[in-house]
Design a protein that fits this description.
globular; 316 residues; 15 helices; Triphosphoribosyl-dephospho-CoA protein; mainly alpha; 2 domains
Length: 316
């Protein structure tokens, strides 16, 4: 990838992240999820497309804040990650009628946008990961409050169950401010039951160490972005039980679903007739009226993987 001029950087970063969301939601047949050939009863493919376009300005703002840090205009603690997350969630909700489409994606992608903006010249994997660490570890109590407010807007299943800090509890907000608890601190608590929070506090280990190398390998092997996307989704799901599912129906069920994902890959996934048939059958088993078996967190991490791939210069 060529070295970016300062005038191009912010636009490039925001488009890379928007495109990552579009790539991920278009990938099919991702088991249990919405994609170009499958909808839920109240949320459909087009809702995700509208959301992806709607949140791009928030990613643009995040990248711009990163460039301000690079130029010495602000400190890392002044990036405003909580504001940026809340801004994106509001844009998502106002852009379509399908409800919460991208909360997890917004939370995992916003630090990537800001971090990419903080890099001088060509974006590298090593430098991007270093800057992501700076972004998340520099968050403030105000960021925590604003992110809690963003989460409360969509009321996602299972995220309100923390006994220590509840996103809907005013006392929790007061505790955050009184004790100086940062957004990073709150995600340390949530990391035990939410993979997005886990990524935050572990420097995006699943994204960089598992998902991205696997995506590159699949792109080289298959030459097909859709196949590589679906296989990467399955790979992440096979090794990291989906925490959206575990919060809904329990860890044991989530682990059984991961075993099934591993079996699909073992038989070739979309690359073989047997693997494709197993994938289609797997997809059917994950579709229930309440969508409680939908690997939504896996989709969010897959979006982060695709975003990094785009930032590294991938062109479809």
């Amino acid at each position: 990838m060529r070295t970016l001029k300062d005038s191009e950087k912010v636009d490039y970063i925001s488009r890379c992240l928007e495109l990552a969301i579009l790539f991920e939601v278009s990938g099919y047949p991702k088991p249990g999820n919405i994609h170009r050939t499958a909808d839920f009863s109240e949320t459909i493919f087009e809702h995700y497309l509208a959301s992806a376009v709607a949140v791009e300005p928030s990613f643009r703002k995040a990248a711009k804040q990163g460039t301000k840090f690079l130029e010495g205009e602000i400190e890392a603690s002044e990036l405003g990650v909580g504001f940026l997350i809340k801004d994106a969630v509001n844009r998502m909700l106002y852009s379509q009628k399908g409800g919460n489409t991208l909360l997890g994606a917004i939370i995992i992608l916003t630090p990537i946008a800001a971090a990419a903006g903080m890099i001088n010249g060509k974006i590298s994997l090593l430098e991007l990961r270093k800057k992501i660490k700076v972004v998340v570890e520099s968050t403030t109590p105000k960021d925590a409050i604003q992110t809690y407010e963003a989460i409360a807007l969509v009321n996602p299943g299972g995220l309100n169950n923390s006994k220590e800090l509840d996103v809907n509890d005013l006392k929790s907000k007061k505790k955050i401010l009184d004790q100086g608890i940062t957004l990073f601190d709150t995600f340390k608590i949530a990391a035990a039951y939410d993979s997005i929070a886990y990524e935050w506090v572990n420097n995006y280990s699943v994204t960089f160490d598992l998902g991205y190398p696997y995506l590159i390998k699949e792109l080289e092997k298959t030459g097909n972005l859709n196949t590589a996307t679906v296989h990467t989704f399955l790979k992440i799901l096979s090794e990291v039980p989906d925490t959206f599912i575990s919060r809904k129906v329990g860890q044991i069920k989530a682990e059984k679903i991961s075993i099934k994902a591993k079996n699909v890959l073992k038989h070739g996934g979309l690359s073989t007739a047997t693997g494709k048939q197993l994938l289609l059958e797997f997809d059917k088993t994950l579709r229930d009226p309440k969508n409680s078996l939908s690997p939504g967190t896996t989709a969010d991490i897959t979006e982060a993987v695709l975003a990094i791939n785009n930032l590294m210069g991938y062109i479809p």
